[in-house]
Design brief:
Shape of chain B: globular
Number of strands of chain A: 2
Order of helices and strands of chain A: HHHHHHHEEHHHHHHH
Largest sheet of chain B: none
Helix content of chain A: 55-70%
Distance between the termini of chain A: 47 Å
Strand content of chain B: under 5%
Number of strands of chain B: 0
Largest interface: A-B, 54 and 53 residues
Structural class of chain B: mainly alpha
Number of helices of chain B: 13
Largest sheet of chain A: 2 strands, antiparallel
Strand content of chain A: under 5%
Oligomer: heterodimer
């Protein structure tokens, strides 16, 4: 899997891309402009509507009406969208640090599972005052997630195993571990279905306004922190340098292996908090679906945000809206997995719209030259 | 007693083998011509549901495979159009298709699959040749189904085509050095389109086979990373069909062991036991990566081709 290195070196760069003044963005969607995004959104909903009409025979306009009124256009909907965006934002913030270093940490789902396991294990058993217990839970989850993604970092630096495959495998291992924990060691006595006992009341974070929990503030606070790490610290400078050109960074004397390890640890640690907040701010216990696929969704969110930390919460908000909107459609007989269809389509449409835009621009420039 | 155990394990393994073998050969084909098919997991999920729907259309597992194949070809068409025609990033396309496949899969499942979704697999070789006697020892090869034998045949055909025919030479040239192949008069786009469609179709067949014949029903999350494992098998099979076969055998063996251990009542929690394939993938990756040796990675893999 030597893909990223090769493609980045050999791909033909469009001219306008080199004019960006700040540290070059290595994102794979970096060509798409806001206009391309708007076109892509429209195209996505158009195709999604066609899918609905073709497969269920329902009127797509009516379906989308319900879709939006339950997500973006009602107070409860907005709160729920923000609540669902919380774990995605946290997982995405963790992943971005790795992505900017050219490391494909696709293991947010597994890291979240580890965070959830650690949070539940402590939250159920460790009877401390809230002021101590919550920091302990978050710190321990961070360490747990860091160690988990550290496995991928270790395999990468020691054996050259591509982190994309190792983190994906670690996802499945962590999810199995989670299932084992809820049916075995952490299971509540005599559950109706596999789940753990509720965490202690002092470990439960309060709601701002149901269903939005105070954990959302943690997600928001992470954004400037991660922005600061990436853009204002020596570590961030080095990781971006490696992300832009591994070989050049090595020749400049950077210890790539050490940096890879540090970045994977931080990235996994932050992503794990996504699972923690699900336990202490939403489920208040651990169940099978506590990670809810948000770690996988975060991959798409990070790609859509072009690996920019400031743009990421907005992408997360939008994707979360799709999840909430689609889950409201189950009453109308449309499965909630419609959100996954939309998310997949959106990614394909954004990359395609980027192409169309590039093509139009070249046409435009060509016509301009001809006119002169 | 132990011999019995080993024989049982062997046949449990061979039973599962076609899923991995067909899927990774499909992934191998598109990587051979220089395009990553990251969407295998989504493709298999989508094709699994289509396979079940196809089964109930004609009450035949073959119709299930056909539906799965067509679903795979549909995904291949999107991949080929975006990656070959428009030269867009293969990784991003792959993730998009992954989500699309998962979504479409469970969407169709909820809408179209009947609640009693029990399917019937393929007839075994024994049934086909009309053998009625007791199946012991080597005769147990008769209890493997037709698809097992077809998948072995597929392996042989693909190896022969890729390494012994003109088409295979063009495929390899396209994956190694498209510019040179183009200059030599190979139609890069046609070769890539064709190979990706066939490859993705095979991945679809694997998904349909998994649902229709192996698990005989669909549950959400059923593919459970098998697509990603098949993808990894191509990588650490070093893009060589024979290695891919051994890789598939290894994973089928792990799955078989899991099944056997459960039936003889070994008390390892099943959740922990189901972790084994993923852990083995990691270990296999470590072993392969730490063994120095010439990598046979197609040189143009993942790189868009622009005609000069």
């Amino acid at each position: 899997m030597e893909t990223s290195k090769q493609t980045d070196q050999n791909r033909k760069e469009p001219q306008h891309r080199a004019t960006r003044s700040k540290m070059p963005n290595i994102s794979r969607l970096s060509m798409a402009s806001p206009l391309a995004y708007v076109i892509a959104f429209l195209l996505t909903f158009l195709i999604g509507g066609a899918v609905i009409y073709a497969l269920t025979g329902q009127n797509p306009i009516a379906v989308y009406g319900s879709f939006f009124s339950h997500s973006f256009f009602s107070q409860y909907g907005i709160l729920e969208v923000l609540a669902k965006a919380t774990p995605i934002i946290i997982a995405g913030a963790g992943m971005i640090i790795a992505f900017r270093c050219g490391l494909w940490n696709l293991g947010a789902e597994g890291q979240m599972a580890i965070g959830a396991i650690v949070a539940t294990a402590i939250g159920v058993n460790l009877n401390l005052p809230a002021g101590i217990l919550l920091p302990v839970i978050f710190l321990a989850s961070f360490i747990g997630g860091a160690l988990w993604s550290g496995i991928a970092g270790f395999l990468k630096t020691k054996f050259g195993v591509h982190e994309m495959l190792s983190t994906l495998m670690l996802n499945y291992i962590a999810l199995k571990l989670l299932e084992y924990m809820i049916s075995g060691p952490l299971s509540m006595p005599h559950p109706n279905y596999p789940r753990t006992s509720e965490i202690l009341s002092q470990a439960q974070m309060p709601f701002l306004q149901y269903p939005l929990n105070t954990t959302f503030l943690i997600a928001l606070a992470l954004i400037p922190i991660v922005w600061f790490i990436i853009n204002r610290t020596s570590l961030g400078y080095r990781l971006q340098a490696v992300g832009f050109g591994r070989e050049a960074a090595r020749l400049a004397g950077m210890d790539i292996a050490k940096l890879t390890m540090i970045v994977m640890l931080i990235s996994g640690g932050i992503a794990a908090l996504g699972g923690t907040v699900e336990v202490v701010g939403d489920f208040m216990r651990m169940e099978r679906n506590v990670t809810g696929g948000y770690g996988f969704t975060a991959i798409v969110v990070v790609m859509l945000a072009r690996e920019e930390i400031i743009a990421m919460p907005f992408a997360a908000f939008f994707i979360s809206g799709m999840i909430v909107g689609a889950s409201s459609l189950t009453l109308a007989g449309i499965p909630a997995s419609f959100s996954q269809i939309l998310i997949g389509l959106l990614l394909l449409c954004v990359i395609f719209a980027g192409y169309i835009e590039r093509w139009l621009r070249q046409r435009w420039e060509y016509a301009g030259k001809m006119a002169c | 007693m132990t011999l019995d155990l080993i024989v049982n394990l062997l046949f449990a393994t061979l039973n599962i083998l076609p899923i991995y073998l067909i899927a990774s050969l499909g992934g191998y084909l598109s990587q051979r011509v220089g395009v990553y098919d990251i969407s295998m997991e989504g493709n298999m999920t989508f094709a699994a549901v289509l396979g079940i729907i196809g089964f109930f259309v004609a009450d035949s597992p073959w119709m299930g495979l056909l539906f799965g194949f067509l679903g795979g070809v549909f995904f291949g068409l999107i991949l080929a159009t975006l990656a070959v025609r428009f030269n867009l990033d293969q990784i991003v396309i792959g993730f998009g298709l992954w989500f699309l496949g998962l979504g479409l899969g469970s969407f169709l499942y909820k809408l179209y699959v009947p609640s009693d979704q029990h399917t019937i697999g393929f007839s075994t070789l024994g049934q086909l040749v009309g053998y009625k006697g007791e199946l012991t020892g080597f005769a147990r090869f008769l209890e493997l189904d037709v698809i097992f034998y077809l998948s072995i045949l597929l392996l042989i055909i693909i190896s022969l085509v890729v390494y012994r025919t003109r088409l295979g030479l063009q495929m390899r040239a396209t994956g190694e050095n498209p510019a040179a192949a183009d200059a030599a008069g190979v139609n890069i786009f046609r070769i890539r389109y064709f190979t990706i469609l066939v490859g993705a179709g095979l991945v679809g067949i694997a998904g349909a086979y998994l649902a229709v014949a192996f698990l005989q029903g669909f549950t959400s999350g059923m593919v459970a990373g098998r697509g990603w494992i098949a993808f990894s098998i191509v990588i650490f099979g070093r893009w060589k069909p024979s290695n891919i076969f051994w890789g598939c055998l290894l994973f089928a063996g792990i799955n078989g062991l899991q099944v056997r251990l459960q039936t003889i009542g070994v008390t390892i929690p099943s959740d922990l036991m189901t972790m084994a394939p993923y852990i083995v993938t990691l270990i296999a990756l470590v072993i392969i990566m730490s063994r120095s040796g010439r990598s046979r990675i197609p040189s143009a893999l993942g790189i868009p081709y622009y005609r000069e």
